From TrEMBL:
The chain crosses the membrane at residues 6-28, 107-129, 135-153, 284-303. Residues 173-299 form the Type II secretion system protein GspF domain. Keywords: Cell membrane, Membrane, Transmembrane, Transmembrane helix. It is found in: Cell membrane. GO terms for cellular component: plasma membrane. Its main location: membrane. Signal peptide: none annotated. This is Type II secretion system protein. It is a multi-pass membrane protein.
């Protein structure tokens, strides 16, 4: 048997074995253990909380059709395995996406890349390259791996930008709360009045958290801390802890909030100056490269004449 025939037989055997294994697992699924049952219970409770958050966030991504069914099955699989994915859930919460849509995208993009394997093989055959089936297969596997990690990179970048915007809003929110405290309001009333000022998505999330605290029987700073845990915003967690310590002393609260707002503005200014410096260095490097290319362009004819002589 030739090498190509042996490789084809091995691939066919691997595909048949994997299919038999999946068929047996589908017909006789393993019984979940205690840890899996507890994880499913926690996941159901967390899903109820996320559904409540979705009702308060009308911009959350809607999923339908085949993508929704695949996403729900993948979410059930992750919950049965006890996979928490805290950072992914926090990024999805701040970007207004659903976990079902994210997991379905991570599954469908690589699957689509693998389905294009026969197309790539036919393309190589039309070109007359004379390559074996393994080359198109490995090309599609490489693209499938890239497509698998692409949603994560996109989500991280978008979440980073939205967290930066949220921190800017938190700084303004602290100033508004301090102003309301200076006007003689209590801490809960000052938090609610400050959250009613803006209509941006970040201020709406803060307003919903503060308003929902009355329904759930929590204090407003506890609700802000919970929102900080959900969105992975350290400033909200720090604000919740500070308000819990000095909630009974209005003067101390006002001083603490003013100092925190000034510190956040100073840090944002430092970050902006750092980014401006990086861009200035990038422009300087680009200008030096252009100057070097122009000097080479001017000197090239003379150098060639000297070398020819």
């Amino acid at each position: 048997m030739t090498g190509d025939g042996m490789t084809g037989a091995l691939l066919a055997g691997a595909v048949v074995g994997a299919g038999l294994y999946l068929l047996v697992r589908a017909l006789f699924p393993p019984r979940p253990g205690l840890a899996a049952r507890l994880a499913a219970f926690d996941a159901a409770r967390r899903r109820d909380e996320e559904n409540a958050a979705r009702r308060m966030a009308p911009t959350l991504e809607k999923v339908g059709g085949l993508r929704a069914r695949i996403g729900r099955e993948l979410v059930k699989l992750c919950e049965a395995r006890g996979w928490r994915m805290h950072s992914v859930r926090a990024d999805l919460a701040i970007t207004g996406r659903s976990l079902e849509a994210f997991l379905a995208t991570k599954f469908l993009l690589p699957a689509t890349a693998l389905l294009f394997t026969p197309v790539v093989a036919a393309y190589f055959a039309l070109l007359g390259a004379g390559v074996s089936f393994q080359v198109p297969l490995w090309i599609c596997v490489l693209f499938a791996a890239l497509f698998f990690f692409f949603p994560d990179m996109q989500l991280k970048e978008e979440a980073r930008a939205r967290r930066q915007d949220f921190r800017h809003v938190v700084g303004a929110f602290l100033d508004l709360v301090a102003m309301n405290l200076a006007g003689g309001r209590g801490v809960p009333e000052a938090l609610m009045a400050a959250s009613d000022v803006g209509d941006g998505w970040a201020m709406l999330r803060i307003r919903d958290a503060v308003a929902g605290a009355r329904i759930t029987g929590q204090t407003p700073w506890q609700a802000l801390g919970r929102l900080g845990d959900e969105l992975d915003i350290d400033e909200l967690r720090d604000l919740s802890g500070a308000l819990a310590l000095v909630a009974d002393d209005g003067a101390q609260v006002r001083k603490s909030l003013t100092a925190r707002a000034a510190s956040m503005r100073s840090r944002e200014l430092s970050e902006l100056e750092g980014k401006a410096g990086e861009r200035s260095q990038s422009m300087l490097v680009a200008q030096l490269l252009l100057c070097a290319a122009f000097l080479i362009f001017l000197a090239y004819p003379a150098v060639m004449r000297v070398m020819a002589a």
